Amino acid sequence: MKHEILRKEDLNPKDYLMEVKAPMVAEKIQPGQFVVLMTHPKGERIPMSVQKAENGNVTMFIRKLGKTSVALYTYKVGDHFENVIGPMGNAVEIKKYGNVAVCSDLVCGHAENYALCKALSQVDGNHVISMQTFPSKDMMYLEEELRGVSDEYYITIEDGSYGINGHYRDVLEKLMKQGKIDMVFAGGRTGEYELLAELTKAYNVPTMVTLRSIMVDATGMCGSCRVFIDGEMKLACIDGPMFDAHKVNYTELLNRVNMFKKQEAIALENYNKMR
Amino acid sequence: MVKLIKNRVRMPELSVEARTKTFDEVPLGYSEEQAINEAKRCLQCKDSPCTKNCPVNVNVNAFIKELAEGNFKEAFLKIKQDNAIPAIAGRVCPQENQCEGACTMGKAGDPINIGKLESFLGDWAMENGVREEFVIKENDQKVAIIGSGPTGISCAVDLRKHGYKVTIFEALHKAGGVLQYGIPEFRLPKKVVDKELSYLKEIGVDIRLNNIVGQNISFDELRDEYNAIYIGTGAGAPFFVGIEGEALNGVYSANEFLIRTNLMKAYKFPEYDTLLFVGKRVGVIGAGNVAMDSARSALRNGAEVYIIYRRTKEHSPAREEELRHALEEGINFMELVAPTKILGENGWVTGIELVKMKLGEADKSGRPRPEKIEGSEFVMELDTLVEAIGTMPNRLFLRTVPELKTSSRGIIEADENLRNIEGVYAGGDAISGGATVIQALGEGRKAAKSIHEYLSAR
Prior knowledge:
The complex is a heterodimer of chains A (275) and B (458).
Chain A: E1 3-10, E2 15-21, H1 23-28, E3 34-38, E4 46-54, E5 57-63, H2 67-72, E6 80-81, E7 83-88, E8 99-104, H3 107-120, E9 127-134, H4 143-149, E10 152-157, E11 164-165, H5 168-177, E12 183-187, H6 190-202, E13 207-210, E14 226-229, E15 232-235, H7 236-239, E16 242-244, H8 250-256, H9 261-274
Parallel strand pairs in A: 8-9, 8-12, 9-10, 10-11, 12-13
Antiparallel strand pairs in A: 1-2, 1-6, 2-5, 3-4, 3-7, 4-5, 13-16, 14-15
Chain B: H1 16-19, H2 32-40, H3 49-52, H4 60-68, H5 72-80, H6 86-92, H7 99-102, H8 105-108, H9 114-127, E1 142-146, H10 150-161, E2 165-169, H11 178-181, H12 190-202, E3 206-208, H13 219-225, E4 228-231, E5 237-238, E6 251-253, H14 254-263, E7 281-285, H15 289-300, E8 304-308, H16 320-328, E9 332-334, E10 337-345, E11 348-362, E12 368-372, E13 378-381, E14 384-387, E15 391-392, H17 395-399, E16 419-421, E17 424-426, H18 429-432, H19 437-456
Parallel strand pairs in B: 1-2, 1-4, 2-3, 4-17, 6-14, 7-8, 7-14, 8-9
Antiparallel strand pairs in B: 5-15, 10-11, 11-12, 11-13, 16-17
């Protein structure tokens, strides 16, 4: 099964967008769920967030990070992927949450931010607050689209070059102090989750975070993505990918995402040499 | 008076030295002459204990008789009457507990090498393009099979012979189930699996890859669209021991280790992209076939490997040949030890705490129950640990089908006709929790018969 690339755009110097034909996936995927990509028959299976699924097409945000994502960037519109498989994982329950914040500070999170805001804003009684964080102004994207699918929007830039100086947590804290947040969804940098969890716990605000652990089949077979939730082993692929932020063991999670770091570096180095 | 030839025609094998450097198949296969000579040892017992002891009752006497006379095609067709995938079953069946275990020749010397004769014929037929010939009288009824492993394959073949339109839904990007993701190349070359699967396509079975029932197609949709469903989803979810330290890096389930190796071909990196970390000292918990497969895969990645087993070698549930190969290849077999804690530093496994065991009274499986010797804990240094203590049916599928009858441990129930609820049948590891390829084949065939009875009575 081949999937044609219909659109490819740079989001910033590190991240790019790809829209591919995947009708079987697009028809079923819901916010919170993800897909697995294989770029070529000898490729690896990598999980990927989805921003939009419309008209039989799936739009993904991808960071040039490892061999697969760097190599995929060389694909052109009209080229084909080997496989887009999914939907994987569980959908977020789209219901009335009240004042709901959707936060992101990394490529995968930004994609899901859009998908979630769009769905949540269609429910009566939800006031959807979208928040994004970027390290610098030149890395920004999606502001306009997110404004279009949310009731309130904040952008924070960590080097102070645009918008609000800081991290989305700073905005969140202000709003929580005013009692204006009932629920938080967050996606992005794993390393920031623990601080987020401490903060929202202090204000007693339920918080769900998307966990990005290493996956192979992403159907519950390999156990690579195991995470510990309140001491109990869960699989991010089939029990998640969203979990209660207040119950995740972040130390173990942060450690496990580095399991193949050395090999990943070698793979990328090999690829760059061959190019 | 027939002269008994006590010894088997020796199966040529890859040298032990060569094996540590390659994933190539270990047994090199009989030549035609060797196969005929081995077949000639058969006594053609009237009561055929071999056939009686085979889960699918392959007519062993009949195929060996033809083989002994050099009639390869006839011999092959005799097996095919009962076994859809002889080239595979011949390689992975635990023959010592089945046909060969019951072989009369085994009392006087070596039992007939039935498994290797079976795979010889399967390979011969593939190489020579010999097929089972039959005419399919098409009908309009449709059957969906969930899972393309052994039980799905055998069910699909029989249903096609009856003329049903058969569609197999496979979650992964390659068909074959455990034959593809679980069993390594050195035991079951993937070209053999692919050939057997290409035969399914030839007879008109539609195999849909990357179709995860419950995710991109719902069970209800299947029930609407198909007249019957066969569930052959296997037991693809790993058990973990449940001890401290399982979150450490360097700790794998055998499923992960083997999926990376077999399905994703990590051993061919960088030709293939998938990564695998294998350290210098690898421990494998368990002593079944999956443990042997993991251990021997690790060895081929250059590691020193230790099997960690709570009973003794003779109680290992692994196939005799796998155990022998593992030991020949230099796998260290630690008996009467059980893991109590995984030790780590800086997030990586550095060792394992083991406790010594002794054998007690027989348990339900008939094997002696291993018992802890209190205070006998000791530490062994390791940098990689693979847990191969069994699998269970995948809860991903079960969660989306609450209407199915299941036992508490997620095993799908099936009555004596392999029926679960109306129009829905199940077999293979999904109903046993983990058995053999041949049992799965037998159940696929039995389900096909039940489905045919159900659909033709409508």
